[in-house]
Design a protein that fits this description.
115 residues; mainly alpha; c-terminal domain of poly(a) binding protein; 5 helices
Length: 115
């Protein structure tokens, strides 16, 4: 009896990967073996960078809070220590947004923290 291979499923699997690699440069978009490797590597990068993104945003928020608190004569650590001491329940994301978009509110917050 001849060997049976499921060409329909194989082709569908290849088409699925090649569809995902549309827009890649050169052979990465249309040569199966190269596209498969690029696609698998891209999935690894996506998984890794979902975690990295959270770290990068936290760093950005800290830099913004630090810059704004230094305008009011405090370092970042002094400011955050005062925020926690006074029981202010605002996270870094909100504090950074206040520092950027509402300097008056941040100034009032800095006054409270300085006490």
């Amino acid at each position: 009896m001849p060997r049976s291979v499921n060409a329909v499923a194989s082709r569908a699997r290849r088409k699925k990967v090649l569809k995902q690699t549309r827009g890649y440069f050169g052979a990465r978009k249309n040569v199966w073996t190269v596209a498969k490797n690029s696609y698998e590597k891209a999935l690894c990068y996506a998984y890794r960078d979902r975690k990295t993104k959270k770290r990068m945003f936290r760093r950005l928020w800290i830099q913004r809070i630090n810059a704004a608190s230094r305008l009011h004569g405090m370092s970042y650590s002094q400011f955050m220590g005062g925020v926690h001491k006074h029981g202010i329940e605002l996270n870094r994301k909100v504090l950074a947004d206040l520092a950027m978009n509402d300097p008056k509110a941040f100034k009032e917050l800095a006054k409270i923290v300085k006490k």
